[in-house]
Amino acid sequence: MSMNGKPKFAMYWAASCGGCEIAVLNIHEKILDVDANFEVVFWPVAMDAKYKDVEAMPDEAITLTLFNGGIRNAENEAMAHLMRRKSKILVAFGSCACAGCIPGLANLSTREQIFEAVYDGISTDNPTGLRPDFQWAAPEGNLHIPEFYPVLKTLDQVVPVDYYMPGCPPESHQIGAVVDLVIQALHGNATLPPTGSVIGAGTSTVCDECPRVRNVKTIKQFTRIQHLTEIDPNLCLLEQGIPCNGPATRSGCGALCPRASAQCIGCYGSSDSAFDFGARLMTAFASVMEGKEPAEIERILDTLPDPVGQFYRFSLAQSLLRAAPLVLEEEEQYATHQH
Amino acid sequence: MMSKINHSTAERVGVYVCHCGSNIAGVIDVEAVAKWAAEHLKDRGVVIARDYKFMCSSLGQELIEKDIQELGLTRVVVAACSPHLHEATFRVACQRAGLNPYLCELVSIREQASWVHTDKHAATEKAKAIVSGGVERVLHHTPLDPLHVPIHPATLVVGGGIAGIQAALEIADAGFPVYLVEREPSIGGHMAQFDKTFPTLDCAACILTPRMVSIGSHPNVTLMTWSEVTNVAGYVGNFTVTVKKKARYINTDLCTGCGICQEKCPKKIIDDTFEAGLGYRKAVYTPFPQAVPKYPVIDHVNCTYFQKGTCRACEKLCPTDAIDFNQEDEIVTLQVGNIVLATGYDIFDARRVAQYGYARLANVFTSIEFERLSNAAGPTNGNIVLRDGVTVPKTVGIIHCTGSRDRNFNNYCSAICCMQSLKFAHLVKERTGATVYNFYIDIRTTAKAYDEFYQRVLEEGTIFVRGRVAEVTDAARMPTEEGKLIIQVEDTLAGRQRRIPVDMVILSVGLEPRRDSHAVAKLFGISCSSDGWIIEKHPKLDPVATMTEGVFVAGCAQGPKDIPNSVAQGAAAAARVLGRIQQKEIALEPVRASVDESKCSGCRICNGLCPFNAILFHEDRMVTEVNPALCQGCGTCVAACPAGAISGTVFSNEQIFAQMEGLLLHNIERPPITEGVLT
User: CA–CA separation, B622 vs B599, rounded Å?
Assistant: First the structure.
């Protein structure tokens, strides 16, 4: 408890876009409840605070930390350890912290490939081919910038996590509900779910919340939604050949995208009992494809233009494979080098 | 979020490593595996690890039983052969000792290690990993009870050839009802087309037709010819089968089988089926005079009345008014407990071997054509003549293995062609006195009295030329070849090329799976090999069962075979069925898929996938359910479920991941695997 007697709240961003912070602010007047019930001690996007302030706190001084973003570099990792140490409840908040999300797709590329894209891209003026130096001996002394890791990791691949809150970003009403729950629990009016649980989401999949009519499926070919001029407003999108990830994606968002005739892209990750989102979805799609002959199957598969983007957009870093073989190799070399 | 190994266990695990004689011990150091398990898997609950010469022997089983009782084992891992072979053996042993049989895990170190590796050290290390996987897996097993279902006493036999007839008669004679479904107008199958049968040369009709008559008149047999099974639902003991009885346009209650309609029908059609294109039939017909049942069918595609609206000669002349042009297909639903598939074979299409000239050179015949030609009731009354219908051949060449044992067509041996070719040689000799050449690769006369028949044909003066025929041609090079068919062959015994002019060529064509065998397999929920033969449960020990409980196979549907073997399989399938019926109920493996309704979102991905029709969708609650009695535990839906809402007993994620962690030796502190072996 702090000086004003209120439990402490923190929110931190690692490798992420900032959308999660906006989603938290988007809980509207409930943010006042947060303020009424918590003392916000650390939230770089919203207030000024220094890492050293957090370091100075006793361990487990912060009651609730919402940690968003994946672990891309040494700073992210150091902060993950710090926030873990200082927090009673550490929540992997949002798809990046839970499963890697979009930054995790970089796990398909080596560091050099990533740097090439960033520092040599067509829009970049870098005639000397400059690259970041993680250590630089300046006349004033050695300068460091955080080491860029070969593989982006999820938060729980680095530190133990108490709860997972999926979504890109998590839906505001779900954030509100979780905030309420924690406040109730602090007042002894509710109990928190067991450690390791997914909070602020459902237990089944998006189809559960989707009002579209569903039938026994056979897919003759996939069609990108932008190539369609007409979408049946009432029929299951997958049955229309639109590669909707709803069947494999955890419920909780209220099926927002399918309701708006856009396919679910899977930001809430997989349900409790599915280990690897992409693998699950691939077997599901493959099970209902019509082809019997190899050539026919190939043809249908070719209508899915971006398999990794389709199946692993949000969960590549969390998947059983985690990264491309070359990248994993680089990670191994990096680890040996460090020791 | 992935499951991590739980590093404490209260279970007491026994590990038993089998030598399998030298099958396993010849490659794997089984003692080292057992010793390793006792030492390194101690923390994982292993309290005893033994090796034994033959774990499946009664002494081996007693070893396990004794340990369960004396050491209080709660889990058992046997490292031996494939679960296919002995899973049941060890489960039963555990049960005898009071341990739930599903707390026993059989891991294969024979098929998956000793038989597939030559490096002894590496194979031993692999066996250790396999045992480790088995131990981790079995820790996640739960006691299960088998499901008991009653067996309906009726049986469906599909296919009225000799195998199906045999199966049907055996079951009917034992006092139980049989439905025999045949898609042709008469039962009899291919055997009814033959004249003589090898090696005894008894007349096929003489031995077959009494059986056919028995079927037709048997009080326990419901014969449904001109009928096809269109749907199969249910499971062992309780199948619901839908049969389409195609319209015969004959009122069978009135028809006496007098044959006047056939006699008077003005429309003559080439009979491609029974007469193999050599003879004719009418638009109203029975395939042959001894057909069972005796009722004809009207072939509406060729019937003048159906095509042009006039004629009705049969209707006018039928003495009992049995012709009924308004008949429609009838759908019948049957309840049966077991099914015997005896769907037979198709003849290899000789046109595919273009160099042999069938359908291009008039006097090249197929074996089935020759059967009709030599049949006393056939189109030539048994006279062996050329395609012109009158000329008796003076020289005949018989080509074995047409389409068989040939990588261009079928790799397998069709099993009957040697003997049928020898039979043809004998018949040609006997009836025409012609010179007969047999062109063979090997002579395979392995069954009882077969080789004696070969000797007999040799002694009769048939000339045997060893070599695969290159070509049959009518392009003469020498005056002696004019007007003849010339067989070009490398005589591999004489070591030279030969050109042998003959008047007639008989292609001894192989047997092929039915053209629709894949569809039939799907219909009955069984599998067939890529070429289309139905796959038996075990090639040696369970040759008439299939992987689907309650569905049996007999005769050539399972693979090429001769009449005695087909009959034996028909009888064997019947014996299996009767055994089931006598037991009145059957215990089913509790390996089943089940749906966690709280996780099912009703996406319906799985709905069309179940090969056993066990999946039911509840429209009202928008959830899917798996019927445990119908489910065979194949796992198709488990894999397909994108929500992970379906899980398979004995194959849960937990169990599989635990086994993988064990295989990767993540369960022990420091992998004592020698460097380099597993990387």
Answer: 11
Residue B501 has pLDDT above 70, yes or no: yes
Chain B residues closer than 8 Å to A156 by CB = 1
Query: B412 with B466, same domain?
Result: yes
Chain A residue set in contact with B, beta carbons under 8 Å: 156, 164, 196, 203-208, 214-218, 236, 238, 246-248, 251, 270-275, 280-281, 283-284, 287-288, 318
Here the contacts of B196-200 (C-beta below 8 Å, separation 24 or greater) are B196/B374, B196/B423, B196/B427, B197/B423, B197/B563, B198/B419, B198/B420, B198/B422, B198/B423, B198/B450, B198/B453, B198/B562, B199/B419, B199/B422, B199/B423, B199/B449, B199/B450, B199/B452, B199/B453, B200/B449
Give the integer Cα–Cα distance in Å for B140 and B11.
10
| Domain count of the fold of chain B | 3
Please give the structure tokens belonging to residue A281. Answer: 């979805």
Domain membership of residue B40 as a residue range: 13-144+653-663
B609 to chain A, any CB pair closer than 8 A? The answer is yes
The answer to whether the predicted template modeling score (pTM) of the entire model surpasses 0.90 is: no
Confidence grade of residue B8 (pLDDT, cut at 50, 70, 90): low
How far off is chain A from B315, nearest CA to CA, in Å? Answer: 47
Which positions 643-662 of B are in contact with A (Cβ < 8 Å)?
Answer: 643-645, 647, 653, 657
Please report the domains of chain A, with CATH numbers, ordered by start residue: 8-103+151-186 (3.40.50.700), 206-305 (no CATH)
**CATH assignment at residue B100:** 3.40.50
Nearest to B602 among A207, A270, A318 (CB): A207
Separation in Å, CA B175 to CA B168, B172, B203, B212: 11, 5, 30, 18
Q: Verify that B462 and B403 share a domain, yes or no.
A: yes
Same domain, B361 and B490: yes
The residue to which tokens 């988007």 are assigned: A26
**Same domain for B628 and B498:** no
B127 belongs to a structural domain: yes
CATH number of the domain that B626 lies in? Answer: 3.30.70.20
Mark yes or no for CB contact A275/B606 under 8 Å: no
Are residues B601 and B498 located together in one domain of the fold?
no
All residues of chain A having their beta carbon less than 8 Å from the beta carbon of residue B599 are 203-205, 271-273
pLDDT digit string (tens) for B642-656? 999 999 988 888 899
Among the partner residues A205, A236, A238, nearest to B643 by beta-carbon distance = A205
Q: Closest approach of chain A CAs to the CA of B346, in angstroms?
A: 23
Q: For position A326, what pLDDT does the model report?
A: 95
Count of CA atoms in the C-beta half-sphere (13 A) of B102: 16
Of B1, B605, B622, the CB nearest to A247: B605
Is A208 close to B602, i.e. CB distance below 8 A? yes
Residues of A in contact with B607 (CB under 8 A): 216-217
Say whether A273 and B647 touch across the interface (CB within 8 A): yes
Contact flag B640-A215 (C-beta cutoff 8 Å): no
Residues of B in contact with A205 (CB under 8 A): 599, 601, 603, 642-643
Instruction: Name the residue with higher pLDDT: A87 or A123.
Output: A87
Helix segments in B161-312, DSSP class H: 162-173, 204-217, 260-264, 304-308
The dihedral over CA atoms of B200, B206, B207, B208, expressed in degrees to the nearest 10, equals 130
Nearest CA in chain B to A269: B643
In a domain, B163, yes or no: no
- Measure CB to CB from residue A203 to each of B599, B641, B642 and give the nearest one: B599
B87 inside domain: yes
B1: confidence class by pLDDT, cuts 50, 70, 90: very low
Q: What is the DSSP string of B148-203?
A: EEE--S-EEEE--SHHHHHHHHHHHHTT--EEEE-SSSSS-TGGGG-SEETTTTEE
